[in-house]
Amino acid sequence: xxxxxxxxxxxxxMVAFGRLLADACQGYGTVYLQGNLGAGKTTLxxxxxxxxxxxxxxxxxxYTLVExxxxxxxSVYHFDLYRLGDPEELDFLGxxxxxxxxxxxxxxxxxRGKGFLPAADIILSIEYLPEARIVTVDPQxxxxxxxxxxxxx
Length: 153
Ligand code: ADP
Ligand code: MG
What we know:
Layout: E1 4-8, H1 11-25, E2 29-34, H2 41-51, E3 66-70, E4 75-80, H3 96-100, E5 104-108, E6 122-129, E7 132-139, H4 142-152
Parallel strand pairs: 2-5, 2-6, 4-5
Antiparallel strand pairs: 1-7, 3-4, 6-7
Helix pairs in contact: 1-2, 1-4
The structure holds adenosine-5'-diphosphate and magnesium ion.
């Protein structure tokens, strides 16, 4: 199929892969991040933000649910929906504006927001190994396929 699978040994490689994803997406799109707690979803998001020149701290927005990063090169919205009680609550966070403007949405635990999120351009799944991670990138749209092509080089 068109999906890509990579084995990344060490946090630095996950960050580097995030930078590559930042380059590949051209500043917009929706990425669903699948994987258990500790899989490396937030580490990957940090890499994406580094790719856009953001040098500050990146933490999972576990309690605020979304962290906006409005930068020169792109607007990135990082979601962590682990603690979202009901998908409808997303409407009260004012996230419509995020979805309507050209932006990159990185969404941890997207299943919790089902029906209230934009469709994914790519679904990125992270599998845990003791000292590495297996990352699978599954394109869902034309934009997603273009991103995968760029990543595959
Ligand atoms: P999540 O957001 O999925 O809960 P985090 O990114 O917060 O996960 O934490 C993942 C942990 O795994 C961190 O301690 C990070 O250093 C480590 N990690 C991330 N990517 C890799 C990798 N490719 N190989 C080994 N360890 C990794
Ligand atoms: Mg996280």
